[in-house]
Amino acid sequence: MDPHGEPGAPGPHPVSSLEQALHAARALVLADLAAREVAEADVVSLVEESVTHRRWWVEQWPDGAGFLAGLVAQDVQDALLERHGRWPLCPVCGTGDPHALDVEPELGPDPHWVCHKAGVKVAAVGRLGGAVPS
């Protein structure tokens, strides 16, 4: 390895756009977990498992990088349902059975947490901490 950084010589590589998208998705989902106070170590491990799986997925379909935040959020939501119960619970509906928010679109850019019962967008993925029940 050439320490002088000669053109064409191997050296430090900038973080790829795919890795940046994976890191961003991880950060957004971790922010939502922290906002709802469920970011324990075992739950963070679920995020890491999803990111590992989605790394392979986005390597196969690089155009899907903009969909990663919603997909990781859904992966974690599904894993939490199996292990801990529904997450995130809807902060909008004050009556009736507690229910979880859903990610919309299921496969698309700009994912949001939505309450289908009330028919409202609650917050963008990564912004549950700022969601104010109305």
Output the keywords.
single chain; 134 residues; mainly alpha; 3-stranded antiparallel β-sheet; 3 helices; 9% strand; disordered N terminus
Description:
The chain has helices at 17-35, 41-60, 68-83; strands at residues 102-104, 112-115, 120-124. By secondary structure, it is mainly α. A three-stranded antiparallel sheet has the order 1-2-3, covered by helices on one side. Strand 2 (112-115) and strand 3 form a beta hairpin. The chain is globular and about 50 Å long. Mean pLDDT is 88; it is low at 1-6.
Low-confidence stretches: 1-6
The total of beta strands comes to 3
What is Rg?
18 Å
How do the strands of the widest beta sheet line up side by side?
1-2-3
Relative strand content? 5-15%
What's a concise summary of this model?
The chain has helices at residues 17-35, 41-60, 68-83, and strands spanning 102-104, 112-115, 120-124.
Topology diagram in text:
Blueprint: H1 17-35, H2 41-60, H3 68-83, E1 102-104, E2 112-115, E3 120-124
Antiparallel strand pairs: 1-2, 2-3
Helix pairs in contact: 1-2, 1-3, 2-3
